[in-house]
Amino acid sequence: MTAVRLSRTALASALALFVMTCSFARAQKAYDTGASDTEIKIGNTMPYSGPASAYGSIGKTEAAYFKMINGQGGIRGRKITFISYDDAYSPAKTVEQARKLVESDDVLLIFSSVGTATNSAIQKYMNEKKVPQLFVASGASKWNDPKDFPWTMGWQPNYQDEAHIYAKYILREKPNAKVAVLYQNDDFGKDFLKGLKDAFGDKASMIVAEEGYETSESTIDNHIVKLKAAGADTFISVTTPKFAAQAIKKVAEIAWTPLQFLVSISASLGGVVQPAGFENAQGIVSAVYVKDAADPQWSQDPGMQKFLAFLQKDFPEGNKLDGADAFGYAAAQTMVHVLEMCGDDLTRANVMKQAASIKEFAPDTLLPGITVNTSATDFAPIKQFRLMRFKGDKWELFGGIMSGDQGH
Amino acid sequence: MSAVEDVVTESPAVEAVPKRAMTLGYGTSLVVLAALIIIPLLVKNFIIFQMTMLLIYGLAVLALNILTGGSGQFSLGQSAFYAVGAYTSAILMEHAGMNYALTLPIAGIICFAFGFLFGQPALRLSGVYLALATFALATAMPQLLKLGYFEYWTGGVQGLVVTKPDAPFGLPMGQDMWLYYFTLVVTIAIYIASVNLLRSRSGRAFMAIRDNEIAASAMGVDVALYKTLAFGVSAGITGVAGGLGAIAVQFVAPDGYTITLAISLFLGMVVGGVGWLPGSIVGSAFIIFVPNIAEGISKGLSGAVFGVLLFLVIFLVPHGARQVAIIAQQLVAKLKKN
């Protein structure tokens, strides 16, 4: 008898407690898998090994940034647990690792996974599971599709936006240009080329020659010669760093003097321009959205000083010349900003809602004036660039902030 | 790897494996089968997914094992056949709306034809030269898949997203579990067929060619036919594995089928034991799980740790899982005697 009475009391009190926590939760705290009073679990996949292992430093920077935030007390008292797995840039492995993160490690969301093919492989899965796939580290334009994939969001300006900016510039400054394009035959090159053609619109015939190359080719010299032979006076180099340097060199070698454009991913001073030779690179135009830590003009900039202090204190193995570090820092800062906006409502739906309502957020390592903005119909957080021209031994910014939106 | 050295010194490419030693005893087979059937009922979905991949890569390693362990020919081009199989399934499912189960035999047949045709010129090559020729195939494949002519079907560089099938007849199981059991049935069917193939007349012809080509032709074996046939069968099975892989991963892209995959499969075969069919699944487990273990030990040096682990395996048990199995068998026999 006592046992029954006891259990009845227990039941009653449990019920009371349940009702209490429920009303509490509605008023204050709400959690999905991966979040609690003390912890927020964030998953990530990175090519730490394999052909794209250079991007691995993005993940290392992000891990160090979250560690620093935890050291400062975390986000409203919650510590970030950042679980980052190697996918070797192989889509099959990404699927395996992403499923492990979601189903076994119980993460709240997946953040800043690198690669287009790799993220494409998990996009459908993440949206079926309704787990946020936030701030994908790839410049493909397909991450901005809130209607079909409401759980996926990009971060960096996409290749098509950048292409629009160059096209706009050409249409304005050199309306009779004969444009030659050298592009890498993969998702990056194709996406960029499509952006150029879209932006030229009915003037697409301005593109007089286009040449694709494979990353397995040892040299792209013959492509450059062909482009010159087509009679072009403007050259857009949609290349990755190694080939970008080759192209700059070859253009100078065959005494071709077009107006040159170089995509932002290859605009590295130390990685591309210096090896190609400063004298060959004079006058090249490129676009940029991240501050270059090697550039002395930012030495007094408060954001840059914070970044350098972070490198010194929290991430000594980082390299300030590696653009991936400034990238990872800004992405992680955006993530922390979103989690702060979530307050105590750490449900997946609210994370997505907050991620889609960022207004004028300026991470430390982005150029002054360039901000992160999203809305329920706009899942492309960064859309702005500034143009820069190579002069002497450094890039010089010119013109105002340009946006890649088609509506000029 | 001693096997490659052997080729250069003109002795048989692969150590002769008696055909009885190529399989497991009935008792062991049943235990393994029971484990493969029961485990998925007890674990999480993502582990079921890993086990599905284990079977799929196991099939691909098995295919290579028939080629190398059975007929003594090398191939570093298996990723190409795997890719053709994967794309065949993906294209038929997404563009033609075909049922996933029907796409697999088609993928197998197309890859068989592809492998058989590739086997023709490969006939003139042997040992390391053949390995190089197939290597060329593996490096060419991702680029071929990107070609503009095929882009409408292959999705070009963006790849194709594949819809995962639901369990049929309203069976009360999730997509992952259904796909696992489906894969298991296909794998067992192909495994039994492969064992029977190697025990048949054709299998004996393969092995005769492996052990001594001149003697085989003197005995009346049509060397050219059987060598190309071995290539075709191997490619066909790899194609089926590729098709299953596309369905399980739900995505195909050229970047997924690079030379790294071919080398992984080759590695799986060596670790599992060349010519020992049950070793295929051990080899497949090695290529799936050991990189994860290596990453757990050190994130920055995962590649190096993987290398060390691989080196240890090759150094301690050069004949792979087969050697471990033989040692275990001897121990059991000894215990029985006492």
From TrEMBL, chain A:
Keywords: Signal. Residues 39-391 form the Leucine-binding protein domain. Residues 1-27 form the signal peptide. Pfam families: Peripla_BP_6. SUPFAM superfamilies: Periplasmic binding protein-like I. It comes from the Bacteria. The keyword Signal applies. Belongs to the leucine-binding protein family. This is ABC transporter substrate-binding protein.
TrEMBL record, chain B:
Pfam families: BPD_transp_2 (PF02653). Keywords: Cell membrane, Membrane, Transmembrane, Transmembrane helix. The chain crosses the membrane at residues 24-43, 55-76, 96-118, 125-145, 178-198, 229-253, 259-289, 301-321. It comes from the Bacteria. The keyword Cell membrane applies. It is a multi-pass membrane protein. The keyword Membrane applies. It is found in: Cell membrane. This is Branched-chain amino acid ABC transporter permease. It comes from Bradyrhizobium jicamae. The lineage of its organism: Bacteria, Pseudomonadati, Pseudomonadota, Alphaproteobacteria, Hyphomicrobiales.
